[in-house]
Amino acid sequence: MLNITHFQEKISTLLPKIELRMNEPMSRHTSFRIGGPVEVMAFPKSRDELAEILKVSALLDTKAVILGAGTNILAPDEGMHGLVICLKDCLDGMQRLDQNRIYVAAGVTMTRAAVFAAGLGLSGLEFAHGIPGTVGGGVYMNAGAYGGEICQVCESVDVMSMDGTVCTLTGDQMGFSYRHSILEDTPGIVLGAVFSLAEKTEAEIRAVMQDLMNRRKTSQPLDLPSAGSAFKRPVGGYAAALIDQSGLKGFRVGGAAVSEKHAGFVVNMGGASAADVKTLLKQVSDKVFENSGIRLEPEVRIW
Ligand SMILES: Cc1cc2nc3c(=O)[nH]c(=O)nc-3n(C[C@H](O)[C@H](O)[C@H](O)COP(=O)(O)OP(=O)(O)OC[C@H]3O[C@@H](n4cnc5c(N)ncnc54)[C@H](O)[C@@H]3O)c2cc1C
User: Which fold has domain 6-86?
Assistant: First the structure.
C-alpha cells in the first residue's frame, strides 16, 4: 500500500480541483527515462490554477520546481520530496498577434510553435523545429541550434513570480546569453512568449525545417533516450570533438554511454540510473580536461 504523506494529504485538500499525481515517477516525464517518484506532481491548466498552486506551496512552505517536457533534466534516482509543477501541454495555445508576431504559451513544444509559424508564412523559428522541449524550457535556457537561438526572435516574455504576480519582460530584460536567461538567477515561471518573425513563403520555411531535421536524424542518436547535448559548448572548442579526440565514444558507466553516433550525447542504453549518468559526465569531463586542458560543464540540468 502507498504511504500517503502529510504533505500529500494537505495539498489534495487545499487544491481539490487541480490535477495532482502522487508518487509520480520522474522517469515518465524525462527524455532520459530516468528519475524516481515525486511526492506531488501538479498539472495546472491555466494561469489561475498555476497561481493557486504557488499560493498553496508557499502556505505549506514548499519550494515548487518547474518541469517542461523534461528534455534537459537529469532527475534523482531516489525521487523528490515536495512539489513539481508540469507545464507541458498544460499552459497551451498559440495565436497570431499581427502581421509578424505570434504569441506561444509555455507548455507548447518548440516544434509545434515552429510548424504554426511556418503555416502562417513566418520565418525565424525554423531552428526550433526538432528541439523536443517546450517554449517555456526553451526561453528559460535560450535554446538554440544550427545558428538560431530563442533570443534572436523573442520580443517579450510573460513571467509569473513565485508569489503569483505576472509581469512582461522584454527580450533585453531577459538577459539572454549562451544557454542562459535571467530566470536561472531570479526565479520566475515562463507563461508564454511573443516571437517577432519575418515573412517568407511557407515552402521556403518548410524546406529549411526539413533540411535541419534531416541533419539531426543523420547526426544524432534519436532512437535512444537522452537529454540532447550533455555538455555546453566550451570556449575554444566543441564538446563532441573534444570527447571524440579523447577516445571516449562508446565509453560506458552502467546503463549510460557516450553515444557512438554523436560524442556530445549521453544515452540511456537501458536501465541507466542518474548515478550512472553523473559518474559518466564527471569521468568524461576529467578525461577531456587531462587531454586538452578544457573543462566541460554539463548542459543538462542536474536536479
Ligand atoms: C534529442 C534531443 C535533442 C535536443 N536538441 C537541442 C538543441 O538542438 N538545442 C537546444 O538548445 N537544446 C536541445 N535539447 C535540449 C532540450 O530540448 C532543450 O534544452 C529545451 O529547451 C528544454 O525544454 P524542456 O521543456 O524540456 O525543459 P525541461 O527539461 O523540462 O526543463 C529544463 C529547465 O527549464 C526550466 N523550465 C522549464 N519550463 C519552464 C518554464 N515554463 N518557466 C521557467 N522555467 C522552466 C526547468 O525548471 C529546468 O530547470 C535536446 C534534447 C534532446 C532530448
Answer: 3.30.43
